[in-house]
Specification:
Blueprint: E1 3-7, E2 10-13, E3 18-25, E4 32-39, E5 46-51, E6 57-59, E7 67-72, E8 77-82, E9 91-99, E10 111-112, E11 116-121
Parallel strand pairs: 2-11
Antiparallel strand pairs: 1-3, 3-8, 4-5, 4-9, 5-6, 7-8, 9-10, 9-11
């Protein structure tokens, strides 16, 4: 059974940093795509970043250069290092997984965590 559990969210001022973690059980990182999505109140869930089974990473234009996705296969943990945070980064952040190929939209992802809230104040 696949379970994803996010942590690391919180409240920071603009320009600050946070690191999100997602512990994944039941996932084989070498055959799964792992991703981060976010959803602000009243908005659709949007792609943030992903990492393919082979380690290739992708980012949305809005976070490129500020956020870094990584994984520790031994610890079965996915990370999202978020620097230079902006108020528009405020959202619930979700960890997601699917077999093999990555997509930058939420619908193909089979597994989701419960989310962790990130709030950035100006």
């Amino acid at each position: 059974q696949v379970q994803l559990q996010e942590s690391g969210g919180g409240s920071v001022q603009a320009g600050g940093s946070l690191r999100l973690s997602c512990v994944a059980s039941g996932i084989t990182y070498t055959s799964h795509c792992m991703a981060w999505f976010r959803q602000a109140p009243g908005k659709e869930r949007e792609f943030v970043s992903n990492i393919e089974s082979g380690g290739i990473t992708g980012y949305s234009d809005s976070v490129k250069g500020r956020f870094t996705i990584s994984r520790d296969i031994a610890k079965k943990t996915l990370y999202l290092q978020m620097n230079s945070l902006k108020p528009e980064d405020t959202a619930m952040y979700y960890c997601a997984a699917r077999g093999w190929f990555c997509y930058a939209v939420p619908s193909p992802y089979s597994y989701w965590g419960q989310g962790t809230q990130v709030t950035v104040s100006s």
